[in-house]
Structure formats: structure tokens, C-alpha cells
Amino acid sequence: MTKYTYILYCVVFCCVTTSCHTGIESTKTIKLSRSERRQIEVSPEEKLMEVLKVPKLGEWEPGKRFLVSDNRASLVFDPNSVNPEEAKLGGKTIEYAGVTMKTTPGGSDEAVIVFRNGSNTLQYSTGKSLEYAGKAISSMDVPMLIDLELVDSVRDLLVGRKVWTRSQLWYDFDGTRIDGRKFVPVEISDVRPGTMVFPLSINITDENGAPAMLYMNVGTAGMESRTFQNIFSLSDPKERYPGIDKEVWSLIQQGKVRLGMTKEECKLSLGNPTDVNSGHDWNSTIDFWQYPNGSYLRFQDGLLVSFRN
Fold first, then answer.
1. Residue 136, phi then psi, degrees to nearest 5
2. Measured between alpha carbons, how far is 269 from 291 in angstroms, rounded to an integer?
3. Exposure pattern of 147-170 as b/e (b: 16+ CB <10 Å)?
4. What's the whole-model pTM score?
5. Three-class DSSP labels, the chain
6. Calpha distance 241→194 (Å, rounded)
């Protein structure tokens, strides 16, 4: 190797390794598509619910009412504060009485929320300092308690509104699952306390006058999957899909599919698949979608050719 060849080799090597280590030369500007921008915009449904305020502990006033949603709630309170004769708290209304402090075995102070159950008191240890608990703990954070003031606020906001359902998870007023439809107009007739998992039950009446109920959470993410924006729409979803004919739309509302439906139509009907496999045969594109309940869809050139639903 000549001297000049060696020098040229070293220069090229340095340029390549510098590019690899900095990553600057290969960095590209990432632009969101129009659909991606729409997804991160605040929806009209989210804007409607923004007026609701879930108060933090530091904002609670004595006398604030909570409904105990389950008898197991007695397990979250200090055992010494639970009267064995009144341990079945499910269905009872208790009131916030204030906050006290206790010293842990480690020597730190811990905020304890005190509730009043008639003449008895119940104590809930937060595991947090008073200052932190006052800012961090909301009225939805104490297990198996439903904030009745929040229920009243949601009722005032929603009752009488015409909305369109986005969920087929409908129930009767006893909490038994019934056949539901999505993308149909309903009127919200009442808002009641729900369960320890979903603190709100939204009573609805469909266009035929049939009553039903949907469970709802208040929030935006994480465990709050059944928020208002996830189960209701303030506008008719069909208007966004003018190309879908009436018969196919009726199947979508029932969560059904038929041969010849497009991927978009199937996704509207069944939701997003959990597993997708794509490939080609000698003259067409094949897609295979799978769902957690065992359902599958097989598409050829974008149209449904076989399924198990």
C-alpha cells in the first residue's frame, strides 16, 4: 500500500465512523401525516369533558359524599377503624371528615384520610406526606369509592344530549350485558353511580325508545379506557364515510362483516386486529387479520374473501 493510498484510506475511514457515531448526516425530519395530526388534536368530545374537574384532596370540603361501591372496601381502611358489625359498606354513603397524620415505623409522617360513616369514622392511609397527598390524590383515587359530586356534575353536563354510540358494550339496568349497537343515535337520560371499576353508569334511550346503560370512566388515558370520547360521539360518524352503503353500515353497527367488505369497513365493524400478516401469491395481495376472541379475516387485494367472526 502506497503512502498516499494509506492516507486516503484513513480519511475515508474517519468520515464514515464520524457519520455513524454522530448520526447527524442520516437524521431526517419527521413529518406527521394529515391523519396523524387529526389523531393528536383535541376532539369535540374531549373539549366537552374538559369542564369537569376531579378535585384533589387539598380541595375537598368536610361533608363531601362518596358512595361505597363494594363490600370489600372495608379492606382498604384501617382495621381498627372498621366496626365489625358494619363491615358491609357496599351501597352506603360516607362523608369526608378531614385529614390527620400518623407516624410510620420508619419515623416519617403519613397523611390519613378520615371518613364518617354515621357515628363511626373510617381511616384510609395514603402512604404519602400531607403536602404531596393534597396535590396528588384525587377523589377517584380511593379504591371502591365513587365521588357523588362528580356524578352530579357529569349528570348536569350530559343529560338530554343527543349522541352517537361508539361501543356495543350495552347493559340493562341490572348490569347484565345485552346486544348493543355502535354508531347509532341515542339520548342520555340519566347518569348514576357505577361500579368500583367504572364509577359512572350512563343511561341512554335509543331511537326506538328502548333503554340501556353504558359504563363510563372519567379521564384520558391508561385505565380510563371507557371515557366519554371512547364510547360516544357528538356527531354522526356515518357522515365521515359517505361511500359506505346503507346495508354495510347496518352490519357495522351490529359488529358484523360480510364477504366483499373493505379493510376500512371491517375495522369499523370489529376494531383494530391484534395481529396482521401480509403477503402475495402469484397475482394478488393477501392480508390475514386476527382478533383476540379467535376471529380472523382474510383479504385479497383489499376485499374480504373469508372470515370467522
1. -100, -35
2. 12
3. bbebbebbbebbeeeebbbbbbeb
4. 0.80
5. CCHHHHHHHHHHHHHHHHHHHHCCCCCCCCCCCHHHHHHHCCCHHHHHHCCCCCCEHHHCCCCCEEEECCHHHHHHCCHHHCCHHHCCCCCCEEEEEEEEEEECCCCCEEEEEEEEECCEEEEEECCCCHHHHHHHCECCCCCCEEEHHHHHHHHHHHCCCEEEECCCCEECCCCCEECCCCCCEEEEEEEEECCCCCCEEEEEEECCCCEEEEEECCCCCCCCCCCHHHHEECCCHHHHCCCCCHHHHHHHHCCCCCCCCEHHHHHHHHCCCCEEEEEECCCCEEEEEECCCCCEEEEECCEEEEEEC
6. 34
The mean pLDDT value for 70-83 works out to: 89
For the record, the C-alpha cell of 215 comes out as 359504563
pLDDT digits (tens, 9 = 90+) for 203-223: 999 999 999 999 999 875 444
Q: What is the CA radius of gyration of the chain?
A: 28
Confidence of residue 80 (pLDDT cuts 50, 70, 90): confident
Place of cell 393528536: 40
- Choices 3.40.50.300, 3.30.1330.60, 1.10.3720.10, 3.30.1450.10: CATH for 257-308: 3.30.1450.10
C-alpha cell at 231: 364510547
